[in-house]
Write a structure and sequence with these properties.
- This is RNA polymerase sigma factor 70 region 4 type 2 domain-containing protein.
- It comes from Actinomycetospora atypica.
- InterPro entries: RNA_pol_sigma_r3/r4-like, WH-like_DNA-bd_sf.
- The protein has 10 helices and no strands.
- With 196 residues, the protein is mainly alpha-helical.
- The protein has 2 domains: 103 residues, no CATH class; 87 residues, no CATH class.
- It is elongated.
- The termini are far apart.
- About 7% of the residues have low confidence.
Length: 196
Amino acid sequence: MVDVLHRLVLGNDVGEAAGKLGRPVRLTPAEHARLQEDGHLRESLVDDAVIACLELFEVRLRKGVAWREDGGAGLTTYLVNGSVLAFVDRLRIWRRTRAEELLCSPVDPARIAAGLADPDDVTDYPDRLDDVADAIALLHEKDPLVVTAMTWRVDTDESWQVIAGRLGVTPKALERRLARARAYLRRQRERRDGRA
């Protein structure tokens, strides 16, 4: 089971397998790369999923509602499918934990400068990297969730709607926060330029 789940994760096929079982999930390119590179993280998620599957199997077996020989699927298939479903839960927990870490971590201004740009007004963010660094530092103090959203946007190229879901807010709420952040930065820049 462990080897099968590792292969599904490494081949980025776990999402398709979970989808066939009614629990669709998609690894972003950044997540897939991280799981390929970080064997310890991958092993941890896979091992936790397999253990959770076996624990649930034991509980269901005692209740008499687990796998049956005449139930259709072989025991190995049954347990692999259970491990895939448990992996989806472990992946979602990891994503939440990663979001919390990103909210508290320092950010690289060069990586997310593009995330500050308003699609309707490309002058909505500072041109020089020092200005971008200052803007991000201001934003990180005011609303770290916006900085995390912008980082994910640049890292994964996902839509704001997908990012909002991963952060646990509605797309409209994220849109409002981004608009407030842009307005805040615009006011800060106008104050700075007014003093210059």
